[in-house]
Amino acid sequence: MTDALLSYTREQGRRDANLDALKIKEWLSAAANPIAARPKGLAVATASIGEAEPPYIVRHSQWQNWLNLKPHFPSPLWVSGAPGCGKSTLAHKVVEHLTKTQHSSVIVSHAFQSTVSTQHRPLMCLAASILDQLLPRDWETQTQKHVFERLVPSYNQYRLHSNDCPFEDLWDHCASLLKSETRFILVIDALDECIFDRAGQEADFLDRILDLLSTTPGGRIVIFSRPCPVLGVGVTLDLEENEIRISTEDTLPEINAFCDSASAKLPLPKELQLKVANRARADAQGSFLWATLFLQEFTNVLDKAHVMEILDKFPDNCWERYAKTWRDGIRELEPQVQESCRSMLLILLGARSKFSLEDIEDSLDLLPNSAQRISKYCQPLVLVVDGVLQLSHASVRDFLLNDDKKTQTTYISISKSEPDEALARTCLEYLLRKDYAQTDRIGQRLRRNVGLGGSTERLEQNFYNYAARNWYIHLAALSSPGPSLLRLAEEFLHAIQFTYWAEYSYTDAGDFQAIRSTEIALHIWMKNLSDDDRALLHLNDYFERPYKDLSRAYKENSDDKVLQWLALMHLGFYYFDKGKMTEMTQVRQEVAAGLSELLGRCNPLALRARSDAAYTFLFNGDLREAQRLYAEVYDDQRKVLDNDDPSLFFTLIYQGQVEYLMTHSSKALEILTSAAAGFLRTSGPESNGFLITQLWSAVADASVGHTSQAIKMMEYVREKREERYGPDDSFGMATKIFVGDLYRKLEKKEEALANIEPGFEFRRGFWPKSHFLTIDTSLVLATTYRDFGMNHLAEKTVDDLESHGNLEREENYIRLCQARHLRGLLLFDGGHVDQAITVLDALLIQYGHEDSNNRALQWVRLDLAGMLRYRGREGDERLASSLFDGIVTDGGGREPDPPLWLRISEAALRLVRDGKLDAAGELLREEKLRWTREEDLWMRLGMPAADTGWMKPPRGLGVHAPSSGWVVVLPGE
């Protein structure tokens, strides 16, 4: 099956290569912002003055030195200047000039941008721009092909939210492509507007730039920015050798020409044009921005008196002009209009994507065409470019978010957290609109998401997509949200509208990953809130309460009686995904009974529900009942479903799991191979169904000795899940733990810990210590630590497990047996032989009787027997042998077992522990015996469940003794 898979994926890869490259290009383009694509903003960016002339900076000696120094310039060239001095226009002209003069084989550019949204401010956007400009729509060289292949994981993980992709994940690909060029010039504009994701990232970025230049002699990098202490540019008294500072003298000729030209185009008499030009030339002080703001004032004047008033009273700097807009304009409007203006500005300050005028109207619930009118009140703080509303200049952001208390009272007071707070509130209020509480509307999405059709008509207004994707991001950006906002979030999390959002997100992301990742993000955020704030927001019934309310609403008021069960079906899946198995059992059994009664047992939807319900028996260890139920469901499905229906193959997965847990590994592999073939034929090797099948095939394969092959199969599964959902995917993390446990059994310490420890940290960071997934991972980790002689860490892990794992609960009694087993082994390893024997003997007395015996206790018997014989006191040998009483029988009910049976029982158990089930069965048949209770040797389901059979024996009893339990590796592995 593995060879067939590899062959299939190679061929599929050839067919899909072009399509993947195109998708990746589109994904990169969404985050890229080359300088030529930067919105022009104010008229200064489109001034025609001197367009035929090369930009003045190319005549600068430092520029000439940077461009022509051989063999290479060891650092980037910094061009710094005050806000509004024309840096972005200059950068644009530089790119045009370098392209025309062909100074380099490749010119790459990027402009950071704070005026439209935060979307083009993260550092990753620079990397996206570089990749977007250097990669063709289809790869042409081996370097390009290699980069496309390595970009697939990032694309799959961040395809819906490109800005969440870390810069570091992309930069190596950028460096690889740039180094492949003989000569390149990289032009970066407005680096001071970049949002760095973490402390120290700016220094790390500059180190990467220096490293790139040191290894690429033909490379040149020029960076334009305002003076910036964080970047260390433009703030020292003395000029650095790699720095050009734009001075008033540098820009004077172009500013004068711009003022003369722009004034001559004003609808004014010649004499007034000259007066305007003279004031502009006299007071611009090197600022194209101020000159533009000043000249714009005259575009709509009606009389000479107004012209003279502007000439006399226009502020001397941009900051005062912005303040005048607020003080004499916005603040004088009607309160409602004033509030709309302020809300519009807050949105532009915090938005994570572009906002059209229609988006503004939709988000603020304004009348049609009113956003255009409101934007005019806010000019020149904002402008509209191609229907998109944006801040007019980066300096507007500085003005609005100014934290100088003296100027705040005069101008406007907006805190740095207020934009996120306003957008979080706007998003939540939008998601809570009554339209999204309509059960018929929610029902359409429910039907569509379970595969029962449903309207494909767009059901949401413009702003819904933004609100659905970003409400929790804006909320989690706040360290101290106000009580009213927390109450609003609490209302949404428990409202019917939440179910519409969940169904919308399910469709958008393809599964529950978006819903669960939101929950995880909220949990992490809440940990840092104050006690008073945490008390206002409750996540303990996240997803659960609104879906129960939705089901109840359908039951009481809907003519479609199926919908109540569809809501509960998704609730059951949520419980399953979160590991709340008791709740899952109850809901799935209720759904199966309800749909079977409503639609008939063989209706496809009822069959799906019956299959879901059977899983509860599988998880709870009632394997015979699970085996029977899955056989019934599969037979019924074959009668009514198409041969390519995925429900058939999922049922086969569950059947395969049952057989594996009942120690029928060969039969399990046969069933799982059929399921894999079905998924491979219908949905391909990257489908979720196929990956689940591969994981359990690998688990079964490892149990018969094909350990190395099993690891390869699991690594394929983990890689594909990580490509699609990232490193924090819960299924991918489970696979990682499976892999680590197999490496443990192969005695590969580094590989084992590298896989298990991150899985443990992930699960402990989200689920409580008493959750079964956390408990199982703790047991796997403790076993691993002990196997590699790290007993102090093993003891610490077991201590924590016994203190906080709630192992006394009925559903955890097998895990309690495993924890006590480990405790006994650690005591014995430490030389506390009597204590170890006492712990394990008490465990068998408490749980070793017939109605609670289990596989884990069989390994306790074997190790306790070894300890007793090691101690060798009077009666220890007899006690060791008696541990195996009642394990086998001839069917006659003889009590107690004769000594021969005791020796055979122990020998057979050792064979089972060594993975030699057939040999154990043959031994019993030779003696005309059988297992008293086969189920005492069955495994329990887990992701993964700890198996204390496969671990090192008590210290001193032989590392590779027959009782060691180390995995058997077949020849050729």
From TrEMBL:
Q: Which UniProt keywords apply?
A: Repeat
Question: Where's the Nephrocystin 3-like N-terminal domain?
Answer: 57-226
Q: Which InterPro entries match?
A: NPHP3-like_N, P-loop_NTPase, TPR-like_helical_dom_sf
From what superkingdom does this record's organism come?
Answer: Eukaryota
Protein name per its UniProtKB record: Nephrocystin 3-like N-terminal domain-containing protein
Protein source organism: Fusarium kuroshium
